[in-house]
């Protein structure tokens, strides 16, 4: 395999790349390379669940205890660490987080928001949510946390002075907000104009994943709810968030309820990302079932306009294997999980007619819904938990050690070719 000799430092020096914070629906013009960069650090145990890009720094969250840089130096890191996007060296940033970090979002002035299952950061109480400076210390002015003893944060998104928080909780910062809230990103104050009132007749309500468009005007989220603001929305909803007051959109679909994937799952939707202009989104799913008329174990595109009864624009089936993550760009829809194939509506744990091999990671044409030729391969494991597009390429996080037929323990970067 061709070895990548250029570092991002060299690419920047040549004026070929500008690094900026990552966002939903990233406007990358090209599909990334199949050859991962050689210098990313290795996470030596556990799983990587989340990334945030702040200028030339990548913050990595997950459930792990140790990392090693490409030069062989090892570092103790408890569920959160950072490395240089220019050359991969591990940074001194080393907050002590006492539980898994499930979500990250960039903050202002060299800060990052972390969400997950932790109770403390650096010995201070921060249940499920914290704002951390890149020197490793907590932002003392942001103390908002979830109040539920068994709650957790599953997803975060920051847009300007707003921070969206989603997960499994009933109150946050002492205010009733079931599974979804919007905060002041500086103070942590709970936004009184954001209360979408997620409900379910029986069982716990949580949000599994969410995404916010680049302009902050469209919020898409999925979870165990059956109604939003008193309107029927079965496990998938769109909200309009461009104004001061957030409102559930008229958009709805029957496609999720019409796919009986696995009665043992409260929800089989696993991840969602929205296009840069907010005009469409892609949701990925598990489900323990397969078939051309179902959306189980698949990637599904929906347009965000219109009212009730929206049908998928396309469905790309894995043939019975779970997808866990998705990143939408102008050039491709990247999907990850423990899948073996894409384009496989007629297979069920085997390659049916038309199936293409895409172990662990793949890319789909956003217009046609068909798999692109991009096929770097990766170890399948539990699956690819995190995909994040940024100016320089695509970040990949998982529980496995091989990516693009090379050793890249639990994280890697596929770059844009300069």
TrEMBL record:
InterPro entries assigned to the protein according to its UniProt record, in alphabetical order: Delta_60_rpt, Quinoprotein_ADH-like_sf
Pfam families: DUF5122 (PF17164)
Domain of life, source organism: Bacteria
Residues that span the membrane, as ranges: none
Name listed for the protein in its UniProt record: PKD domain containing protein
Record flagged with keyword Signal: yes
Signal sequence segment: 1-24
Alphabetized UniProt keyword annotations: Signal
Organism ancestry: Bacteria, Bacillati, Actinomycetota, Actinomycetes, Micromonosporales
């Amino acid at each position: 395999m061709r070895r990548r000799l250029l570092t991002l430092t060299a690419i920047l020096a040549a004026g070929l790349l500008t690094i900026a914070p990552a966002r939903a629906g990233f406007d990358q013009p090209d599909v990334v390379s199949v050859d991962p960069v050689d210098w990313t650090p290795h996470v030596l145990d556990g799983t990587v669940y989340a990334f945030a890009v702040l200028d030339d720094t990548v913050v990595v969250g997950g459930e792990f205890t140790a990392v090693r840089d490409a030069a062989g130096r090892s570092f103790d890191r408890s569920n959160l660490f950072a490395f240089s996007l220019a050359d991969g060296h591990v940074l001194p940033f080393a907050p002590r987080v006492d539980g898994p970090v499930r979500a990250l979002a960039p903050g202002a002035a060299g800060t990052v928001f972390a969400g997950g299952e932790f109770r403390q950061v650096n010995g201070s109480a921060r249940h499920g949510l914290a704002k951390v400076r890149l020197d490793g210390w907590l932002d003392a002015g942001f103390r908002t946390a979830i109040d539920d003893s068994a709650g957790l944060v599953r997803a975060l998104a920051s847009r300007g002075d707003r921070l969206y928080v989603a997960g499994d909780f009933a109150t946050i910062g002492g205010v009733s907000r079931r599974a979804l809230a919007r905060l002041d990103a500086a103070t942590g104050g709970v936004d009184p104009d954001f209360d979408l009132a997620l409900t379910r007749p029986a069982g716990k309500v949580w949000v599994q994943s969410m995404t916010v468009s680049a302009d902050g005007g469209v919020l898409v989220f999925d979870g165990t709810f059956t109604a939003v603001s008193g309107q029927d929305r079965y496990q998938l909803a769109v909200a309009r968030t461009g104004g001061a007051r957030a409102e559930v959109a008229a958009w709805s679909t029957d496609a999720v309820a019409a796919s009986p994937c696995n009665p043992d799952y409260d929800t089989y939707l696993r991840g969602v990302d929205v296009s840069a202009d907010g005009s469409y989104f892609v949701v990925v799913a598990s489900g323990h079932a397969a078939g051309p008329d179902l959306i189980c174990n698949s990637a599904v595109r929906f347009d965000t306009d219109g009212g009730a009864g929206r049908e998928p624009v396309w469905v790309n089936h894995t043939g019975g294997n779970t997808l866990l993550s998705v990143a939408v760009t102008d050039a491709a829809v990247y999907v990850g999980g423990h899948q073996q194939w894409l384009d496989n509506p007629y297979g069920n744990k085997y390659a049916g007619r038309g199936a293409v091999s895409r172990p662990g990671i793949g890319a789909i044409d956003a217009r046609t819904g068909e798999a692109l030729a991009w096929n770097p391969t990766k170890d399948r494991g539990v699956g690819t938990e995190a995909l994040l597009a940024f100016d320089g390429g695509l970040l990949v996080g998982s529980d496995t050690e091989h990516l693009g037929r090379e050793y890249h323990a639990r994280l890697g970067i596929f770059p844009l070719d300069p």
